[in-house]
Amino acid sequence: MNGTRRRFFQDAAMLGAGFFASAKVLSAQEMQMSGDMPGMNMKGKKGSIHDHGSPVLVETPDVPNLPWRMDGNVKEFHLIAEPVKQEIVPGRIVDLWGYNGSAPGPTIQVTRGDRVRIIVDNHLPEATSMHWHGFDIPNDMDGSPGSSQDPIGPGGRFVYEFTLNQEGTYFYHSHMAMQEMMGMIGAFVMHPKEAYKPRVDKDFVIIMQEYAILPNIKVPNSMNMEFNWLTFNGKSGPANTPLIVRHGERVRIRLINLGMDHHPIHLHGHQFVVTGTEGGRQPEATWGPGNTVLVGVAQARDVEFVANNPGDWMLHCHLPHHMMNQMSSMVGPMSRRNGMPAGLDMERGMGMLRQGNATSEENGPSLGRGLGVGSTAEQTMSNTPLKTGNPMQHQGMQMGKPDVSKDANSVPGFPQDAFMEGPMMAMDKMVDKPENFGLRPGWSGFMAGMMTFVRVLPQDKYDQIMELRKKKEGNKPMRMDMPGMEHKNE
Ligand SMILES: [Cu+2]
Asked: How many angstroms does the Cα of residue 436 sit away from the middle of ligand 1?
């Protein structure tokens, strides 16, 4: 049981009043609802396409699923808005706001026609509200603060209830704009009763978010207009869990964007078709081939493809700055400077803030592009020659020598402001997990920002990874049963 779920169930148990019948029911339900669905459908299927039956459940790598209980014919969920400590990459733990210990919040899955109740508790220090993005529901359930309901005050609760007659990739989010930029969104997938044709074998959700978090600071600056941490499902490369599929399987990826930027998401090695938007399924007549889809703010895009090309294929946002981590103008220079500038202490010399919060007088909201340029505390700094010799050593990382030519420093344009081209910062060991098994050594040095893999694997390698995953998860069941959803395809 991870911290998220443990926390959730502790909270749920403390609520008493029969929210769940007993601790035993809790753990059974929790096991049933284990968010580790990647283990589903792992046996006895060879990538065949099924044209009948109920849809597969979605996997949201690195994000749990939200459990529910049935109350009569109502599917009841419980969301807790609360501060969250989120490890974006190894060692980089930041203070976000999310739901049930996760940012983005846990994924909700329902089936068309479901009557749904969602209890929302506010454990934030300020008011919030919950909006159901794209839902055709009564106005007083819409979660618009001030117009459709009063905001939910700190310590408060609001119970939403509605019947859902839609299908597609939807999401929930705080309707307080600045809270959105602290992480407050989650996926809400509405399955059709019968799977679409052609049927997909794997169905994934990826939520895109972005944060402005300066070096040495843990709280995002939600006022900033530029972002230096770009995440898929709350993780930046190389910390993302890859999407594992069998060679020949049909795959759907549901891309959701809530931030300040639009993201052109590109898949290597395959052509896909866009089969859905935030408004639901698109008619097949509109499906044209592509390999890059622009996902605008507040939009969702479903893409589908047949994984017919074996290998480890990148899936990433194609904006160059969205393939970087921790990008700030001071990070590049500090790795190759000869000593500190005169008159500055260590932290100042490295361009780090010391006051702890984004609106402190030290730099405050003047921080703009590059998280330093335009600020009065910006240092004058021209590009200095890249030092050859031994690179800085970081614990746990494979710090190689930069692979540069002898005359590199005489070439105009070299080194760029933020010289971070690998393989200096590989951290394969630090992000080791079953889904990364068998990747090329040093791979992690080239993954950053909104970047993960679709690993199209032959049966034996696929089984090997599922075996490792099973071992890691111990005896947790490998499937999740949803009332009204059967998995005939296994
Ligand atoms: Cu992007």
From this structure: 23
The alpha carbon of 46 and the centre of ligand 1 are apart by a number of angstroms equal to: 34
Residue 26 has pLDDT above 60, yes or no: no
The pLDDT, as a whole number, for residue 213 is 85
Q: Can you give the pLDDT at residue 9?
A: 37
Give the whole-angstrom CA distance, residue 152 versus residue 81: 10
* pLDDT level of residue 344 (50, 70, 90 thresholds): low
Q: Which residues pair with 314 in a beta bridge?
A: 453
**Contacts (Cβ under 8 Å, ≥6 apart) of 37:** 57, 58, 59, 65, 479, 480
pTM above 0.90, yes or no: no
Q: Give me the residues near ligand 1 (ion), CB cutoff below 5 Å.
A: 263, 317, 319, 322
> Measured in angstroms, how far is the CA atom of residue 230 from the centroid of ligand 1?
7
CA distance 220 to 230: 12
pLDDT of 221 strictly over 80: yes
Would you tell me how many other CB atoms lie within 10 Å of the CB of residue 221?
22
* Cα(51) to centroid(ligand 1), Å: 34
Q: Which two tokens stand for residue 353?
A: 């803030």
Number of residues in the chain: 490
